[in-house]
Request: fold
Amino acid sequence: MADSPQEIQKQVKKILLIGAILIFFTVVTVALSYVELPSHSLNIIVGMILATIKAALVALVFMHLNHEAKLVYKILAFTVAFVLALFLLFYFSVSDPLVFKDF
Amino acid sequence: MDIPYTVTARPDTGLYNAKVGIWLFLASEVMLFGGLFSSYIFLRVGADYPWPVHELNVTLGFVNTLVLIGSSVTVLLAWANLKLRNIGKYKMYMVITVLCAGAFMVNKSFEYKAKFQHYSVTLTDGTILTGHLPHGYEIEFGDVTTLNLTVAGKHSAVDADPVDYVVPYIKGEAPKFKTESGEEIVLDKASFKKLRAEAHDKAVAKAKADGLKETPNWNVKLTAASPITFVLPPSKLLAKPTPGATAIAFRDGTTVEGKMINDKMTLEVDGIDLRATPDKEKSLAFDEHYLGEPWKKAFIDQREHAIAEFNEKYGDGKGGTTRDPLKSATHQKHMFFVPIHSATPEVHDHAKAEGEHKAEAHAPAEHAEGGHGGHHPEVHLERQHVHFFSNFTPKLNSYYAIYFVLTGLHGLHVVAGAMVLGYFVFFNGRMLREDPERLANRVEVGGLFWHFVDLVWIFLFPLLYLL
Reply:
């Protein structure tokens, strides 16, 4: 934990900078959504990459995940694994590995 | 008793206790929203309609994003100033954060209200008209002279209650009614109570005379002094009336006979969606009783313009295109979705071509705020042509279902976060004086929750508004 006044002053500058970067990325996301990329899936992928970068900045800097006690990472490791599993579930809606392959 | 490790870290975990708690809580929150995002993916993959893109108010969503990012910054500044013991600044930044939460919710309420008041009507040929119902959807049923009430013999869900279920929908002033015994009454709570008691007595007497075990229902006829016309939404009836119906039944079981005067749906049209219409030029929307030839011409012009634009953008120089027009959702929308901003089609093609891009970006939803000016053509749709209608709520499609679930749950988180942070700044004055370091930790933990709310919005905004 950064507790000395100098450290905190430094953090304040960092917070403002990250805030500005987040706003910048938001503007980029909105602008890019009006650009027709070769396929709409690509629009979605680019949009999600930008959102992930923003989310990572919030998590790492605002939520101090760049320097946190080990226990927090242990808790989050489980969460991340389960959430990824949830997101990959959609695979079953496009293909059903349990039944016929070429039906 | 003192709670341990509220200020200093516990040696084995390396954290003060509240922080362990908030991270465990946030982990479960991630799973909660993760499950909903997962269902979003399923619904989108399985949608059998064009998934709405840019259909919500992007400006409002964008402003809300800025508000949330801003408040994430201010909650951190509040924490830093509390650490530095700049109490005035700490309080100021906390209050700003809470105000941001309020601003977010106010914006959200504008957005929701617009959706509740905006309607989508699917015609029988698949054409979708969007717009506003200036007086909701109401039918007019007239030439009624007699009310047939049914007083239930035993306790029943449907029991005569004309004062609440029939009289309110009489057009103009309610006339006097004549009872079967020839008495003239004004139908109100008191007179109906008397009427009902009499009917019940008669039913009981009849049951006694006939040796019935149960009291039968009793019919009461009321004759109106002058013919009545009813104006009411069909939802206030027991069953939806068929076109040309000669009798309707109210929700309390009262039936009346008469004539259907008007069961048309008046819609102020702000968009024609022809994407699901097989024969687009013969769409019901262009029927002469509805939007007619001028709008058909406007549609054809717009389609030609869209095709020309697409060919110019993706033409390969050999008469073909480098991109499959059928697979470009944007192109399909430009071709088959006609936004309507004026009572009659604009004549100047130049102005139209320029205005179009702008219109496309907002159409059709944003005009929900536009109110009910004379900027839209009005059509009177016949019931037999209406296949389905709904406002832009979960009833319409799975996109609006997941939109309301996700943004509603997120909105509740904003409210909860504002309450927690508001509590710290307004009700924790004693802790601020006596143990500011502990309060700083509280603010940090509350802030972590607030950043999480921001983080969820970072994904919600592009997924629901932009992509």
Q: What stands out?
A: Confidence is low (pLDDT under 50) at residues 350-373 of chain B. Residues 87-117 of chain B form the longest helix (31 residues). The two ends of chain B are 54 Å apart (CA to CA).
